[in-house]
Amino acid sequence: MAQRYVRVKSVEGQVYYGLLHLNQTVQVLDAPPWLQGQPTQLELPVGSYQLLAPCAPSKIVAVGKNYVAHAAEMGSEVPKLPLLFLKPPTTITAAQMPIRLPAQSQQVEYEGELALVIGKRCTDCTPDQAQHYIWGYTIANDVTARDLQKLDGQWTRAKGFDTFCPLGPWIVREISPAARLQTFLNQATEPVQSAKIDEMVFGPEVLVSFISQIMTLLPGDVILTGTPQGVGGLSPGDQVTVEIEGIGRLENPVVARSSPAPTATIQST
Question: Which of 116, 161, 164, 241 satisfies CB 3.0 to 4.6 Å to 184 for a cystine?
Fold first, then answer.
C-alpha cells in the first residue's frame, strides 16, 4: 500500500502532519511533507487524534466540464480551454464530517473528483514541467448548489458554502492514470458516477501549467480536476462516498445546515 500522508489534531488541540500506518497510528512529521517534513519520535495512537482534511490550502482552483459526458449532461460542449473557478478554503471539510445543506438551495449535488496537491511554488510552468510541482493526490467532492449555479449565472455562491469541499482522507504520492473514480450513495453497490481519470479532457499536467500562467500556485494548494457524468442530488440523511483506486474512500454524511457537527474519527479502508 502507498504511504498515506494525513493531517490530524491531537486531543490537546495540536495540529500535526504525519504518516498513517496500517495499524492506524500516526507517525508525526516536523513539517508538512511537501516542505520536506521528516518523521519525529512522536507517534499518536489510535483514538488520540481527529482526522482533518489532509492540507490547508491558500486556494482551491477547480475545473468545470472536464469530462465529455459530464459536459453533455450539463447541456454544453467541452470548453476549448480549461474552465476555472475558485472555491474558498472555508469550504473544506474532512472525511466523515457532514456536508451541511444550506436553506438557500433546494438542489445540492455531489461531484466526485480527483484532487491535486501542489508541492512547491509554481508560476508559468509548462506541461512537461508540471509533474515536478504536483506533490500528491487526494479525493474531493465538489458539492454544488445546482439551482443557485443556474440562477446566478456564475458559480461563487453555488460552490462556496461551508462544507462544500470534502477533501481526503489522506494524500498519496502517485496514482495510475487509469485509476477509476466512483461515487456511491447510501452504501449502494452500484456507483452513480464511474470513470477512469485518464478520460479527462485536460489532464493534470495541462491543468497545472494552464493555472500557473494565471496565478501563482503555492505549496499545499489544491486543484480539483473535474467530475465525470452522473452528478445528482443530496438530501439530509444521505451518505456519499467518493472512491479512487490507489487512494481510498472519502465518506461524508449529509445533514441540514442547522444540525450539529459530530467529531471525525479515523476510518480504515
Answer: 241
| One-letter amino acid of 244 | I
Q: Computed from CA positions of residues 212, 218, 220, 222, in that sequence, does the dihedral angle turn out positive or negative?
A: negative
Q: In 3-state terms, what secondary structure has residue 48?
A: coil
Residue 260 one-letter amino acid? P
**pLDDT single digits (tens) 3-59:** 999 999 999 999 999 999 999 999 999 999 999 999 999 999 999 999 999 999 999
DSSP summary character for residue 241: E
Residue indicated by cell numbers 470534502: 166
SS3 content of the chain, % helix, strand, coil (to 5): 15, 40, 50
Q: What is the pLDDT of residues 213-228, one digit of tens each?
A: 999 999 999 999 999 9
Predicted TM-score of the model (pTM): 0.93
Joined together, the cell numbers standing for residue 207 give 491543468
